[in-house]
Write the structure tokens for this entry.
Amino acid sequence: MKHDVAAQLPFLNGIEVHEFLYQKDDVVSPHSSLWGDFNFSLNGTLEFDIEGKYYLSPPSYGLWLPPRTEHQSLPVEHEIHYICIRIHPKFGQFLGNSCRCFSITPFFRALVVQILEQQKQATQPEYLEHLLQVLFDQLKQAPAHSHYLPQSSHPILVPILERLSDPELFNVSLQQVLHNFSVSDRHVLRLSQQELQLSLSEWRNRAKIIFAIHQIRQGMTIKQLAFALGYHHSSSFIEFFKRYTGQTPIQLKNAAI
């Protein structure tokens, strides 16, 4: 008597890994799924309108959308190669019932590439099942955040965040920017943790990363970008960029080629 191997392996029926390409100015109409979606980009920053709220994730972060969550992508300025991992509700409950941004590692990204190759071959279901199990375990233990770059409507923080995210001030120190505001360091620290769940230095670093990704895709040289962000040496900027994205600027630039 023959048995359906796939039917005996739950992750083959509960997790699907798909890859897509966004072309310049592509927009996906609002939609939702009965399954949960975990989306991340291999070479750029994903931007979504999720139930009226703005979310984004650079290459080292992915967005978890629970089942029946209406969302749409926003127009992109360059080609983006992105991954959608669809997860059955029986597994998705472990990732939460609200949209969240998860930090992902280079190992996770390499694992997804391996799974895509195995899905195309369709010759070793047991091995594919094992890879999907590892993928799910990686997701369950990945650090999660409400947003990659959270915002606040607090009257004290709004003007501060505007200044901290201004590219023309990226080469100015955090202390110099805050010096223009009549508020104590202790109060700002308390507000940032309360409103953003991040320190202002970490928030600003993430704003710099988003700016850097965009400028790299626009053709700015590494030396120019390092100078714009306040680094005296390109190597220091490259180290900073890799720490946040898991890639060097050159690897990011070549990812879509």
In short: Residues 5-145 form a domain with the Jelly Rolls fold (CATH 2.60.120.810). The first helix runs from residue 5 to 8. Confidence is low (pLDDT under 50) at residues 1-7.
